[in-house]
Amino acid sequence: MIKIAIFSGSIPSSTFIENLIKGVAQKHQVQLYGVIEKPIVYEQGNIHIYKTPKSHWGNLWLTIKRILKLALQSPKNLSILLKETKRFKSNYERWIWFTKFLPIVLYKPDILHLQWARDLEFYYFMQSKLGIQLLVSLRGAHINYTPIVEPRMAKIYQETFPNISAFHAVSEAIAHEASCYGADMKRIKVIRSPLSPLFIDSYQPCNKPSHMPLQLIVVGRFHWKKGYSYLLNAMHMLKQQGLSVHLNFIGENDYPEEILFQLHQLGLENQVNLLGKKSQEELATLLKQHHALVLPSLEEGIANVVLEAMALGVPVISTNCGGMAEVVKPGETGWLVPVRDPKALAAAITKLHHTPEYELQRITANAHQLVKQHFNAEDRIAEFLEFYEDVVRSSEN
């Protein structure tokens, strides 16, 4: 049985990481490290939680016990850990990182699977100095734009990527982007993000809108990379052309200033609505109530919400960013437009509106089958299990 630390820093983590944890625990021991954000109970006995104190001066006795245990178990590793924390500037920073690193060094997994590439800045020494095999997930933002807006991270990637044991990429596009920083393509395995059966099993054939306005939905946080300003400009164009369109935002409870101002400036206050955060179950229901999901992003790995909409039978319009072209194929599974192009977004929305029902049903059925074949949870978990076992075999050889 392999000891695999699936690390995101928070317990519980996001939905797709939680699905991975539960799936892997059916065969191997899973170790979770990080701050417990809310109570969670796992049914599988193979899942072990080693919490980091939320207040790093709090729960001092737990940290002291861990220090004593590590001192008895491996004085050498304790010495490495103490030296490693000296790179941080203040005593408080050193203490914070010491309490984060300590349980991982103490319980020493065979594989430390970092869910976010930028965590290499802090955890790379686990492989280089302690011999723990590092597996790094390449999901999108941390590869596509972080090293561009933060040159320091580009340098860290260039220094560490050539030595990492293995990488998991959510798309072929992300894998190739990582190779620009020295990642060996032979060590990168593309495994699509596992999708909850909730969406795949709730598929319904798409019906032509029988009433107006056309109901569109976008899902995600308000962030520049989501490209919402371009979608609002497209909405304004459609309004000027006389096409009645309504847009619902899901994922935030308040508009940022720039969106509020743009809505006012373009006169879209009555056409755009904010529905706030929703659970997975609520989202599945809401998606089916809309005529299309729009993804106007500038950057993505492969957006989960697009896969969820495709699984449900909801038409999708997406920008050609990141790995989106690997799933949204024009005329086959959806509509694909260039990034930062409101005119193209408006044209795609208009085209969808004029598409006959039989054609909508063909496209959305194709999309559902693609997701069902390449993103179902059971097969993706099996791929991860094989991947972990390959990493351990390679390290032994």
Looking at this structure, what is the CATH superfamily of the largest domain? Glycogen Phosphorylase B
Judged by helices, strands and strand pairing, the structural class is: alpha/beta
The CATH C-level name of the largest domain is: Alpha Beta
Which residues form runs of ≥5 with pLDDT under 50? none
Query: What share of the residues lie within helices?
Result: 40-55%
Number of strands: 14
Q: How large is the radius of gyration?
A: 23 Å
Gist of the model:
With 397 residues, the protein is of the alpha/beta class. The protein has 18 helices and 14 strands. This is Glycosyltransferase family 4 protein.
Characterize the structure shown.
- The structure is a single chain.
- Strands 1, 2, 3, 4, 5, 6, 7 and 8 form an 8-stranded parallel beta sheet that branches.
- The protein has 397 residues and is an alpha/beta fold.
- The protein has 2 domains: 3-51 and 110-194 and 377-396, Rossmann fold (3-Layer(aba) Sandwich); 197-374, Glycogen Phosphorylase B (Rossmann fold), CATH 3.40.50.2000.
- Helix 12 (228-241) crosses helix 16 (342-354) and helix 15 (304-312) crosses helix 17.
- It is built from 18 helices and 14 strands.
Indicate the topology.
Elements: E1 3-7, E2 9-11, H1 15-24, E3 29-36, E4 47-51, H2 60-73, H3 75-85, H4 91-107, E5 111-114, H5 120-123, H6 125-128, E6 133-138, H7 141-144, H8 146-149, H9 151-160, E7 166-169, H10 172-179, E8 188-190, H11 197-200, E9 214-219, H12 228-241, E10 245-250, H13 257-266, E11 272-274, H14 280-287, E12 292-295, H15 304-312, E13 316-319, E14 335-337, H16 342-354, H17 357-374, H18 377-396
Helix pairs in contact: 1-18, 2-3, 2-4, 3-4, 12-13, 12-16, 15-17
